Amino acid sequence: MSEPPQNQTPTITIRISSDSDHSPLDVGFGRGEKSWPPVRNTSPTLTPSALETEMVGLRDKLSTWAKRYEDLLESKATDPLKCDAAGLVREMWKDLAEWGNWLYRQLFHRESSDLVEWSVKLKALKGCRLVIDSAIGGIPWGLLYDEKVPDELPDNYVEEMIEHFWLTSYRLEMLPDYPRDRFLWVPQLDDRNGTGLTVTVNKYIDDNEGSQQIGFFTDVAGRSVSGAGTKPVRPFRININKVELIESIVCKEEPQHLVYFFCHHQKADGTFKQQGWRYYGDSKMILEGKNATPETAISLKEMDRNGKIESFKFPPVVFMNACESSQIEIGDPTSFMIYFINSLKAWAFIGTEAQIPTRFADDFGKRFVREFLKRQPIGEVLFTARRDYAVQYFNPFGLYYTLYGDGNVSLANEVKEATE
Fold first, then answer.
1. What CA–CA distance (Å, rounded) separates 377 from 5?
2. For residues 243 and 294, is the Cβ–Cβ distance under 8 A?
3. Tell me, what DSSP letter sits at residue 147?
4. pLDDT (tens digit, 9 = 90+) per residue, 292-314?
5. How far is CA 259 from the centre of its chain?
6. For the chain, how many helices (H) and strands (E)?
7. Which residues neighbour 221 within 8 Å (Cβ) at sequence distance 6 or greater?
8. pLDDT in tens, 250-269
9. Cβ pair 173, 131 in contact under 8 A
10. Which of 52, 145, 156, 352 lies at a C-alpha separation of 20 to 30 Å from 221?
11. Angle at which helices 209-223 and 358-373 pack, to 10 degrees?
C-alpha cells in the first residue's frame, strides 16, 4: 500500500494579537529555527475594530460575486464549472487579488528590514505547510496576495495569480484553539474495521444538487470497501431533516471518520451595544427548503444546550459545505466551527468564508470526499483542488473554502471500489 504524501517542511507559525479593539494589530512570525529568528510587526493602520469593518466589506464582496456565478460561466447549459477566462471572471480574480494585496501590505509592514527578509524567505517556501495561529479571528488568510497586482492582467493571469494567493501557493491551515493534548494525537483516522460516514443533506437545495448529493453518497457507500479491503463503508447514514440529524448526533455509531453537511446555513450577526457588550444571534443549519423555521432548521444554541449530545470518542473530520460556514468574527461564539472543534472534539473543520454557488459546492464536495476516501491528507486534497479548479476552469471559488485543523489528517486505510 502506498503511503500518502507527507510534507516534512517545518511549519511556519503566524500569531496575531492586540491589546484592545482600538490598539494596532501585533503580528509575530516564527519558524522555530535559528536561521529564521522570529520577528514582530505592528500594523500601521489596522486595529481589531478597523479590521472587522474591512471583513464585513470583503464578505459582502465575496457573496456578491457568488450571486453572479451564472454570469461568470462560459456556458451555463453545458458546464457548471468552467468560467469565461476573458469575461467577467477576469475582473473577479483581479478584485480579490487587489484586496488581498492591500491586507498583505498592512500585515507585512515593509519598513522593517527583518520583516522584508522574512517575507522573502517565506516566498521561497511556496507549496509548503503554513499554519496560522491567530488570537484575532475572522481574517481570511488564504486571500492574502503577496505581489503587486498589475493594471492589465496577462493572458495567463490565472497561472500567475495562484502562485501569489496564499490559499493556492501554501498548504494553509488555521489553528483552532485546541486543548493541549490534541497536539499529541496521531493524524490518522483508524478505519481498520470500516469507514464511518454521516451525511446530512438538504435535498431541496437549488437545481437538484441536494438530490444529486444523496445519490452520490449512496453510490459511494454501496460500491466501496474499507479497512483491510473487506469491510464495507459503515457506519453510513444520510440525514434529510432535523429529527434525523439530532438522532444521528445523540446516538452516534462510532467511529465516524467524516461528518459531512450539504445544506443552507444562516450565520448569526453580532451587534455592538453602547456599553461595549456584544449581543450575538444564533447561527442555524437549514435542513429542509430555504427558510429557517423551528421545524426545518437546527440552531447552534439548540445543539449546544442539548445535554444528550456528547463529544466524539473518535474525532472525525467535519465538512460543512454551506454558505458562510467557517466565517467567524472577533470574539464570535456563534460559529459551528468552534462548536464542532471545541465542544464535540472534532479533528478538523472545513467550511466557507461567504456565500458559495450551489453548483460549485456540489462538485467541490464530491471531489473532496472521493480523495479523502483514497487516504489523501485533507490539506493536500484542498490545496490540489483549489489549484485544479483555477487552472482547468478559471474558477476562483475554491478560495472560499477554509481548513481549521491539521491538514495531515487522513484515513489509515484507503477505501476501494468493491470487486465482485
1. 8
2. no
3. S
4. 999 999 999 899 999 999 999 99
5. 14
6. 12, 21
7. 197, 232, 233, 234, 236
8. 998 888 999 999 999 988 76
9. yes
10. 352
11. 10
